[in-house]
Structure formats: C-alpha cells, structure tokens
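Memo to structure team: turn this sequence into structure tokens by end of day. - J.P.
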Amino acid sequence: MSSKRLKSAILAGALVLSGICYAQTPTDSDYFLRAGIDCYNKGLLDEAVIEFENVLLLDKTSFEAKVWLAQAYIDLKQLEKAGEVLYEASLQAPDHPKVEQLRNILEEKSVTIKKPAEAAFGKRLRPFGLVIPENKIKVNNPEIAVLALDTERTLEADEEKNINLKDYFKKEAGPLSDVLELERTTGITAALDLYIGKILKDPSLGAQDDQGFLMRGNRIFSDRFSDNAFNPENRFYYGALLYINGSYADSLEILEPMKGSAGAYSEKLRPIMSALEKWKKTEDERIMLAKKAEAERRQLEELARIKEQNKKQDVWDELKRRRTGTDAKAAPSDGTVSEAALAAALHTQGYDLYKKGKLDEAIEKYNECLAKDDKNAECIYHLGLAWTDKALAGDTSGFDRAVSYFEQSIRLDPNSKNAKEAVSMIRDINSARQTMGE
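Reply from structure team:
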C-alpha cells in the first residue's frame, strides 16, 4: 500500500472514530446534529445520514435535521428518500427558504415530494451514537477511540487540502459575513438582531451557510430560556430562533404571551408575530378542510352502511309478506283515504305536542299515527327526534329507539331531507355514546 493511500485510510478511520466522540450523549440530539454536519462537510455522506437519523429518533420535530438529511440524500442520489424527508419538513414550514430550495432541486429532477409509506429514517438508536453501522465498527475500546481522534487532529493540518469539504449551500459566509463579524466582536445578541432583521427583509438568506451561527444562538438561548422563561430577552430570542428554524408552532407558543407586554422588544416582535399569525391562519384552514373531508368520508360510509342494511330489510319484509300471504296490491281500498287523513291529523297533533316539550304525549300520538299508517316516513323521523330528546333528558335507552326510528325513516324515503338529517342524528348519537363511554 502506498504512503498516500495508507494516510488516507488512517484519516478515514480517524474521522469515523471521531464521530463516536461527537455523539457520546445519546439523549442530547444536538450532539448528533453537530456530528452529522461535521461528517457532511467532510464528505462522509453515509455517516452524516446516520447521525441525522439519530437526531430524528430523539426528536421527530427537528426541522433542521430533516433539511440536512434531505440534502444528504440528494447528494447521495437517493432522490426518493430525499423527497419523503422533505415532505415531513414541509409540513412544519412549507415556505421556509431551505425547504423551497431543496424542493426546486427535486422538481428539476422530476421527483415527487410525497408522504413516506413508512418512517423515512431509522427505527432505533445506534449503540453509543455511532455514526456508522455496528457491523462496520471494529474498535470498542474508548482509549483507542481517543487515540484515533488525536491521530486525526494531527493529520488534519497536512491532509485538509486533500479533503473535499462541502458547504451546505455552496457558499461561504457571503451576505452573512457582517453577522458573523458582529458576533465575534460584539456578541451573540447584537448579531442575532442583525440576522433577524436581514432574514425578515430577505427570507432567502435563510438558505445561506451561517457557519453554525443559528446552532450557537439556539444552544445559548435554549439554556437561558430553560433557566428563566420570564426574562423578556430570553423569551424573545429563543422564540425568534424557533421561527427562523421553521418551528412555527413552538415559536408562536413562546412569543404569543409577549403580545402587549413586550416592552423594549415590541418593534422586534411585531413582524415575527405577523408572519406567525399568517401561518396560523393558513394552518387552521388546512386543519378545518381536513376535518371536513373526514366528516364527509364518514357520512358516505354511514350512507353505504344504511343502504346495505336497507337491502337486507327489504329481503326480510318480502319474506314476511309471502309468509303471511298478504299483498299490498290486493288490500281493499275502502276507507284508505280516511285512514290516511286520520294518520296525518294524529301526526300533526304529535308534532305540536313535541314543539311544546310534551315528549310522552307526542310519542303517544306518533304511535297512534303509525298504527294507521306505518309507512309514514316523516312521522317516524319525528318519533326518532322525540326519543332522542328523551334520552338527553336522562332516559339513555331512548338512544337505541331513536337510532332505530331514524334508520327506518331513511329506509322508507332515502332521498328526502329528513333522511339526510337522520344520518347526521345517527352520527351525533354514536359520538355522544362514545363520549359517555357506552
């Protein structure tokens, strides 16, 4: 083996083993994220993917990990996986500049961004946060791992020019150089003020390489907010960082209590809250449409169920007719008109009593009506309403009777307005039963 090839092999092994040291705390996703970014920047894409997957195993809502993982999959030419991961990220922040940039890349390659059939990342943590699969790890001794890390640091200065370093968005500091310089000379707070102002004016800057600036800011103010959530500075900067990182729901939860009492942060808070409220409105509309679609789907299922039940009932009715030897067509016509008129009058009397809240008397009249005209779909529907009110007043057995009458009214006149109302009533009764634990 040549000297150059030997040094390359040693360097690769050192980089892999150094990943072990980066992710020694499997309960802290920040370690995995930093290790993944470091591997990505050094061109170790497979190892970077594993680290970003580890982050998502610890925190499924990590927007930053999803964006990095999607970018790594694109570089590995695993475009379908990239599309699935980007779909998950777009649910959190559909208009985030990083999401838009990666979406454009995939659309240019004719890749459909779709919901994954299964989780787009791994199902378990690697032992000790390894950045490569267990079956490829030959060293378990931590002393050897530390030695390998020291070796990597020694070689890094000589071999850095031979490593293909990859910047996340192919730029160096660029338009964020003044932010990084201000952080170095003045501190993180002043630099964040400048960065937030630039992002609000030009959201596309969120796609620029910030050289870990946001990660540093998030680590600082996450700790400060945990220590003192009532401090306006801690709350504002932590909430603003969540907004910039695409965690809109969390950001809104943190910043909304500051409305009207932000003090010195009022002007800084206003444009962020405006953007968050616009997102919340869009999200609420999306959820409302999803619920409406679900309700319509359930209504169609209920109609299909009743239709199928009607078919069975029709067969049963025909069997009963044949067994008793009766036939509606052979029935005598004498007195039919007077019976129908009397039934209609009894129905009207029952409905008037129902409107006055006299449920027992109304039910009695309805039953008298049906004794003369058992095919009166409207009377049967009103009888279902009366039994529903009885059940709501405490007679819970009335629900069963109400459902039975509603289904009967649907069966007799399936295309009527009352039939549609009966379907809704059945659904509401079933929902009420579930709520009461029946």
